Amino acid sequence: MINLTIDGREIQAEEGSTILQAARNNGIEIPTLCYHDELTASGACRLCSVEIKKGTRTRIVTSCIYQVEEGLTVTTHSERVMNVRRLVLQLLMARCPTSEVIRELADKMGVEPQERFQPDEDKGKCILCRQCVEVCEQVVGVSAIGFLNRGADKSVGTPFMEPSGVCIGCGACAYVCPTGHIEMSENESGNERTIWGKSFKMVACKECGRYFAPQEQLEYIGTKTGVPLDKLYTCVNCR
Amino acid sequence: MARINNLQDLNKRREQGMASLFPSKTKVMVGEATCGLATGAGLVHKALAEEIEKQKLDIMLRKTGCIGMCYREPLVDVIEPNRPRLTYSRLTPKNVPAFLNQVLEGNHKSKKPYCRIDEDVFIGNGETRRYFSGALPDDLGEVSPMSEIDFYEKQVRIATRNCGYLDPDNIDEYIARGGYFSLRKALSSMQPEEIIEEVIKAGLRGRGGGGFPTGYKWQSCRRAHGEVKYVICNGDEGDPGAYMDRSIMEGDPHSVIEGMIIGAYAIGAHEGYIYVRDEYPFAVNALSLAISQARECGLLGENILDSGFSFDIQIGKGAGAFVCGESTALMASLEGRAGEPRAKYVHTVEHGLKDRPTNLNNVETWANVPVIVGRGSEWFSEIGIENNAGTKVFSLVGNIRNVGLIEVPMGITLREIIYDIGGGTPKGKQFKAVQTGGPSGGCIPKDMLDFPVSYDELSKAGSMMGSGGMIVMDETSCMVDVARYFLRFLESESCGKCVPCREGVYRMRQILDDICVGRGREGDVELLESMSEAIIDGSLCALGGSAPNPVLSTIKSFRDEYDAHIRDKKCPAGVCKELA
Amino acid sequence: MNEVSISEDAVKTIVEKYHGEKSALISILQDVQKEYAFLSKDALNLLSQEMEIPLSSVYEVSTFYNSFSLVPRGRHVIEVCAGTACHVKGGPKLRSRLETELNLECGETTEDRMFTLEEVRCLGCCSLAPVVKVDGDIHAYLEEDKIPGILKNYRNERRQSGEN
Asked: The complex's ipTM?
């Protein structure tokens, strides 16, 4: 076990764990936006920044990636850290003025919009947290969506912004998106789902008749797991 | 090309190289690095070749790299047996026939030499070779020695020791000037740890701008866990205004290769990469040729110089992304991915390329290594100043008389560089600032020119030494416009991964745009300053982390210009078109 | 310019040259672009299949780096250097003049597909500022008024070569 100090409290943490994990395991709150337990931490949003001190040197690091070290002193709400978080939220509010999630988070942290930043109108609610791309690549394994361009023009989408040949319509990206930017819709009868510009025929559960998953998704699961397709035509509730 | 297995073979090639460097017949050398070619050196070469062919003259025609005097290009050198080497400047294809005639006739009727070199000093091994014996020929009394002209007097050329002196396509000439003897010394008589000790004692620091002690970096990499390790040369030179690395890669590619082999041996790596930016095709060519020659000679590949050590180098190419100058982004690029940096809490010497221990150094850093091994750490450490040993190559450009590539001992002052070497600002315009450190640096005003150039000192002047780009600005530059220029650059080069850089630099740029068109507001400067702090602290990598520097530096030293733009809606330098 | 059809064999040869190494994707894309003057949808799809890299990754790399173009570029690519030295020595004026003469904005291609105008930072010819590069040729110490003549030369070159 590693001994470190967080906000004046002496904490013990497992070697290889991150400051964020150590803090959360001890009831110490550090805000995050792009962090997800099941996905590789990217350090993209910087909201989880903390101030660390080793010897005489202090640094601002992202707690989602920085691993605990013996004798480390961590401050989760120093002035420098609050300045970073404030700017990040102000920048995100300007980038995604229609995002309620960001506005609420800012309100909760007492951050006002920076009126000198003119709100963007073309980014929707996407904060580029990267979770959708990561879940599609790491958990689902099809990499249907990815990043395009760089800098402020960076965005997420399917190649050429056209319906993807490999998307299985599982909706994991929409589920994981923190702001609800990714649109996934179903038609009235529920037998068709549309996401990223592609429409999927939904399969009805053999037992209860509810439309629960796209055909492509079940085929994909069948291929990956070897489970015969007809066994997959039962929804989670009926299993 | 025959394989070089031992000292005897090396000496044989050295002799061949000497015969080429100091030939028994007249040799004409044209400076053909990118700049030379851009000013017409290629056409001059062609005209010379045609005339030589036409008159069936027994003259050797060769090319060479950038000797640094870019403001006098195209440069053509004439080396006649037992005569000083003569440099002619600004030759044109039209001059060529008359020029060749005067060479044959032995006079200066059509073109006077710009300067002469009596003696070559091989920095690599300390040897000297005189071009002629006896007294200076009468007709050259008026011609200044190159070492005495203002541009060169204060220079000490270590990393650029061979640039402009040898044909980069000729490995024998490199060997003749001391090349590959350091490698031989290292492989045959030094242990890896000894080499690392030498580099530590020499005090070499990363010349890409970071200034991290090279020897310690090598040591960490050597000690890192893992069988497979890599060494990388960062040839991505993205700072606008900087071309030091390009000149070394084009003019003396073997110096980089030799440095890397020595480093790889010290660290325990068997594979190396030279990452060259896409905008440098001539550098890629020069390096490719040098690598294949080294392979033919057995200096790259299996069992180098019979030592049992094997090592080879591949070239990786950039594709137009400044951020790939950052080490983790560079490695991502070498892995075939987008150049997005990652946090460096775990150093690349532990987990770098393909997650393996990787030692990355800049071109100029590698070029210094053979000299340190050959001349010794003590010799090297005596050049420069405390904690800043050796020299630094700078590209001195912009509003300066003597534009070119210089190499000077650390500790020289900015004033000496700009006025003694550079000749000051031309056309009667007043000096205003010198920009150093590229987009990570700042602008140093007139009253801070007595700061010495070094890793540590220039930060006190509100900038940093950086990779070596030194852009002189006169009264026709608007410092607010300069800040905006750098923000626009960084905005377009940001990888876009982290919020502070992607969104923060964009917003800072928008505010600068406003200021430059007359929409600046009271409080903008304070806002820029507070945003800067958070962006410096919050960014994922050094691109964002240093992006605010040009803004902070110009606010610090040229606050009056900001005030004029914001309060009076005026641009004192007359640059910002929308303002008076 | 007609849509170029991608030869599967040509692309496969390029991939083989690099032993199909995923890490060589950038070099492979550069070679493909050199062959076809831009990266078409077909080319990217083919590469994704051949190299077994998700199309989204190939697409990401193609759009991340400045060197790549997903639309056909002009016959002649004009690169205005926007490096710092060029900036302080009149570079912006050259860019404006080129935009005026070609009737387009930086990043665009002329209607007749003759010229594409791009900004580049930096060419490393700082001692020759301000610099404009057209195809492989570097025009040093360029003065604004020389631009119409230079463009005319490239246009005439085209007519002489009898193409199109």
From this structure: 0.96
